[in-house]
What does this fold into?
Amino acid sequence: VQLVESGGGLVQPGGSLRLSCAASGFTFRYYNMRWYRQAPGKERELVASITAADDVTNYLDSVKGRFTISRDNAKNTVSLQMNSLKPEDTAVYYCSAPTIKAWGQGTQVTVSS
It folds into this structure.
Protein backbone atom coordinates (compact mmCIF):
# COMPACT_ATOMS: atom_id res chain seq x y z
CA VAL A 1 0.00 0.00 0.00
CA GLN A 2 1.38 3.38 -0.97
CA LEU A 3 0.09 6.95 -0.97
CA VAL A 4 2.25 9.65 -2.56
CA GLU A 5 1.31 13.32 -2.27
CA SER A 6 2.47 16.07 -4.61
CA GLY A 7 1.68 19.66 -5.45
CA GLY A 8 2.73 21.51 -2.34
CA GLY A 9 4.82 24.65 -2.35
CA LEU A 10 5.06 28.31 -1.46
CA VAL A 11 2.14 30.55 -2.43
CA GLN A 12 1.10 34.09 -1.59
CA PRO A 13 -2.04 34.76 0.44
CA GLY A 14 -5.07 34.59 -1.83
CA GLY A 15 -3.36 32.16 -4.17
CA SER A 16 -4.22 28.60 -5.12
CA LEU A 17 -2.62 25.18 -5.05
CA ARG A 18 -3.78 21.76 -6.12
CA LEU A 19 -2.56 18.77 -4.14
CA SER A 20 -2.69 15.28 -5.57
CA CYS A 21 -2.33 11.89 -3.96
CA ALA A 22 -1.50 8.82 -6.03
CA ALA A 23 -2.63 5.52 -4.50
CA SER A 24 -1.35 2.04 -5.19
CA GLY A 25 -1.42 -1.40 -3.65
CA PHE A 26 -5.11 -1.49 -2.84
CA THR A 27 -8.44 -1.24 -4.68
CA PHE A 28 -8.75 2.52 -4.47
CA ARG A 29 -12.35 2.85 -5.60
CA TYR A 30 -13.63 0.91 -2.58
CA TYR A 31 -12.11 3.20 0.05
CA ASN A 32 -13.02 6.51 1.60
CA MET A 33 -10.19 9.01 1.39
CA ARG A 34 -9.17 11.94 3.55
CA TRP A 35 -6.81 14.91 3.58
CA TYR A 36 -5.29 15.95 6.89
CA ARG A 37 -2.87 18.72 7.79
CA GLN A 38 -0.48 19.43 10.62
CA ALA A 39 0.94 22.83 11.37
CA PRO A 40 4.07 23.29 13.52
CA GLY A 41 3.25 22.83 17.19
CA LYS A 42 -0.33 21.78 16.48
CA GLU A 43 -2.18 18.49 16.31
CA ARG A 44 -3.02 16.88 12.99
CA GLU A 45 -6.51 17.87 11.85
CA LEU A 46 -8.92 16.47 9.31
CA VAL A 47 -9.35 18.91 6.42
CA ALA A 48 -11.58 17.07 3.95
CA SER A 49 -13.01 13.64 3.23
CA ILE A 50 -14.71 11.90 0.33
CA THR A 51 -16.61 8.65 0.38
CA ALA A 52 -16.02 5.72 -1.92
CA ALA A 53 -19.62 4.82 -2.66
CA ASP A 54 -21.10 8.15 -3.70
CA ASP A 55 -18.42 10.87 -3.47
CA VAL A 56 -20.03 12.55 -0.47
CA THR A 57 -17.65 15.22 0.81
CA ASN A 58 -17.09 16.89 4.17
CA TYR A 59 -14.84 19.78 5.15
CA LEU A 60 -13.26 21.44 8.13
CA ASP A 61 -15.30 24.57 8.82
CA SER A 62 -12.36 26.89 8.23
CA VAL A 63 -11.82 25.63 4.66
CA LYS A 64 -15.44 25.35 3.51
CA GLY A 65 -16.00 27.29 0.32
CA ARG A 66 -12.26 27.48 -0.37
CA PHE A 67 -11.11 23.85 -0.64
CA THR A 68 -12.55 21.08 -2.82
CA ILE A 69 -11.75 17.40 -2.51
CA SER A 70 -12.26 15.11 -5.49
CA ARG A 71 -11.27 11.65 -6.64
CA ASP A 72 -10.56 9.93 -9.94
CA ASN A 73 -11.08 6.22 -9.54
CA ALA A 74 -9.75 5.53 -13.04
CA LYS A 75 -6.41 7.11 -12.11
CA ASN A 76 -6.39 6.08 -8.43
CA THR A 77 -5.94 9.65 -7.29
CA VAL A 78 -7.51 11.98 -4.79
CA SER A 79 -6.99 15.72 -5.08
CA LEU A 80 -7.43 18.81 -2.95
CA GLN A 81 -8.00 22.09 -4.77
CA MET A 82 -7.15 24.93 -2.42
CA ASN A 83 -8.21 28.46 -3.30
CA SER A 84 -8.06 31.77 -1.43
CA LEU A 85 -5.23 30.43 0.67
CA LYS A 86 -4.45 32.06 4.00
CA PRO A 87 -1.30 32.04 6.13
CA GLU A 88 -3.12 29.85 8.64
CA ASP A 89 -3.40 27.15 5.96
CA THR A 90 0.36 26.65 6.22
CA ALA A 91 0.99 23.03 7.19
CA VAL A 92 2.15 19.66 5.99
CA TYR A 93 -0.75 18.05 4.15
CA TYR A 94 -1.27 14.29 4.21
CA CYS A 95 -3.64 12.03 2.35
CA SER A 96 -4.99 8.98 4.08
CA ALA A 97 -7.06 5.88 3.50
CA PRO A 98 -8.36 5.56 7.05
CA THR A 99 -9.95 2.14 6.78
CA ILE A 100 -6.61 0.54 6.04
CA LYS A 101 -4.62 3.03 8.16
CA ALA A 102 -2.57 4.14 5.17
CA TRP A 103 -0.78 7.50 5.12
CA GLY A 104 1.32 9.40 2.66
CA GLN A 105 4.61 11.09 3.50
CA GLY A 106 3.08 14.55 3.35
CA THR A 107 3.62 17.65 1.24
CA GLN A 108 4.47 21.09 2.61
CA VAL A 109 2.15 24.01 1.90
CA THR A 110 3.42 27.45 2.89
CA VAL A 111 1.24 30.53 2.48
CA SER A 112 3.30 33.66 2.91
CA SER A 113 4.02 36.97 1.26
In short: The mean pLDDT is 97. The two ends are 37 Å apart (CA to CA).
